[in-house]
Specification:
This protein is α+β, with helices and mostly antiparallel strands. It has helices at 17-27, 50-58, 62-71, 84-88, 114-121; strands at residues 3-10, 32-35, 39-44, 73-74, 77-83, 94-95, 104-111. It contains five helices and seven strands; from the N terminus they run βαββααββαββα. Strands 1, 2, 3, 4, 5, 6 and 7 form a seven-stranded antiparallel beta sheet that branches. It starts with a strand and ends in an 8-residue tail after the last helix.
């Protein structure tokens, strides 16, 4: 399964660059990082999502994550947002809409097999009868 992950977080004047990078690093094990004047963007392959996948399982929020990921899916693209503040302490917290005045981490995932990707990142415990 081919997959390209991009996550972008704006850096506001009141924020510390190192903390924004730490928030991204806590959730993603990225291959590349781009630091702009007012943003940080990371990118990588499917392996970049291993931390996120493990956290979803540990926190037992795979079903909720699955709903949000499916809701943000179209064609071979997935869009969702994570709380930057929660990511700073290593917690993946999905948000809908803008909840923080400092913004969120905007995640875009492109995959060649959407159904397979969703089943990989948020497997269900249900068995076919």
């Amino acid at each position: 399964m081919n997959c390209n992950v991009h996550a972008k977080a704006e850096i506001h004047p009141t924020e510390d660059l190192d903390k924004v990078i730490t928030a991204l690093s806590n959730i993603f094990d990225y291959d590349e990082i781009e630091i702009g004047e007012d943003f940080v963007c990371i990118s990588g392959g499917v392996e970049s999502l291993n931390n996120l996948k493990e956290s979803l399982e540990k926190r037992r929020i795979r079903d909720t994550a699955r709903i949000i990921i499916m809701k943000g899916s179209r064609d071979n693209l997935i869009f969702f947002s994570l709380s930057k503040q929660a990511a700073l302490v290593g917690i993946p917290n999905f948000v809908e809409g803008e909840l923080s005045p400092l913004g969120e981490i905007e995640v875009t995932i492109k995959t060649d097999d959407l159904a397979r990707f969703i089943n990989w990142i948020t497997p269900t415990n249900k068995t076919d009868i």
